[in-house]
Amino acid sequence: MDFLEFVETPAFSRRRAEIMTDDDFQQFQTYLLNNPQSGDTISKTGGCKKIRWGSTGRGKRGGIRVIYYVVTQSGRIWLLLAYPKNEKDDLSESEKAILKTIATKLDL
Known about the structure:
Blueprint: E1 5-8, H1 10-19, H2 22-34, E2 40-41, E3 49-55, E4 59-71, E5 76-84, H3 93-106
Parallel strand pairs: 1-5
Antiparallel strand pairs: 2-3, 3-4, 4-5
Organism: Yersinia mollaretii
Protein name: Type II toxin-antitoxin system RelE/ParE family toxin
InterPro entries: HigB-2
């Protein structure tokens, strides 16, 4: 399947503008288009994935986490959340439940 587009949630767009340069984001998009399944699947989220992405000057370990969901039928990659690693290690159970609800609706 060729992926046709990225869809950003408002939450993702707000954070992305704060924590990624436009060049970093373009490199991230190119990577994800070529490797849409590369992130780790997050348990209890209905298939959402988390990818670690290094931002300029930080590397992967100190960089950014992006939560995304791939819908193969429509060719869309939904960019749901983005945050720096130093803000949060793991998602809470309530965040996972919300992501699962979203993923279920995106699959329709």
